[in-house]
Amino acid sequence: QLACPLDLGCHSVKNFAQKHNTISTMTSDWKFPLFSCLQDIPACACVTCCGGWALGEVGLHIGKPWLETCCFNCLSCGWYAVKMRGDVRAKFGIQGELPQDCGLMYCCGCCAGTQMLRECRSRSGGAAPPRPRP
Predict the structure, then answer these.
(1) SS (H, E, C) the chain
(2) What letters, b where the CB count within 10 A reaches 16 and e where it falls short, cover 99-114?
(3) Distance, CA of 55 to CA of 71 (rounded, Å)
(4) Distance CA 16, CA 28 (A)
(5) Residue 90 and residue 107: Cα distance in Å, rounded?
(6) What does the pLDDT look like over 61-95, one tens digit per residue?
(7) Which of 26, 50, 53, 54 is the most buried (most CB within 10 A)?
């Protein structure tokens, strides 16, 4: 039995995925293929050059505070981005599981981040919700 990657009281990866709602019963697929990121150069450049900012926008689309999303992603060495990918999938009913999210975010992070950003923009009418002013 595989050990839980975080000490959250889980006994296996499957239990971890069930506990954190990452085992999918979703039926939808991503609108944009993973390696189609160069079809949207501005989104690709945003994710590649300023990933925290881009994931902050993704966070706004899924109802998370921009600053929290941006900072947690930068400080968590990618774990927060993996969690956000699961959150995007859950919000839009997209198929997938935690191990796949983890592999994609760590091995193809720029493409996966661009895919998430494009998906959120597409399903939200193209614009991000405004960031709250301090």
Answers:
(1) CCCCCCCCCCCCHHHHHHHCCCCCCCCECCCCCCCCHHHCHHHHHHHHHCHHHHHHHHHHHCCCCHHHHHHHHHHCCCHHHHHHHHHHHHHHCECCCHHHHHHHHHHCHHHHHHHHHHHHHHHCCCCCCCCCCC
(2) ebbbebbeeebbbbbb
(3) 10
(4) 23
(5) 22
(6) 888 888 777 777 777 777 888 999 999 999 999 99
(7) 54
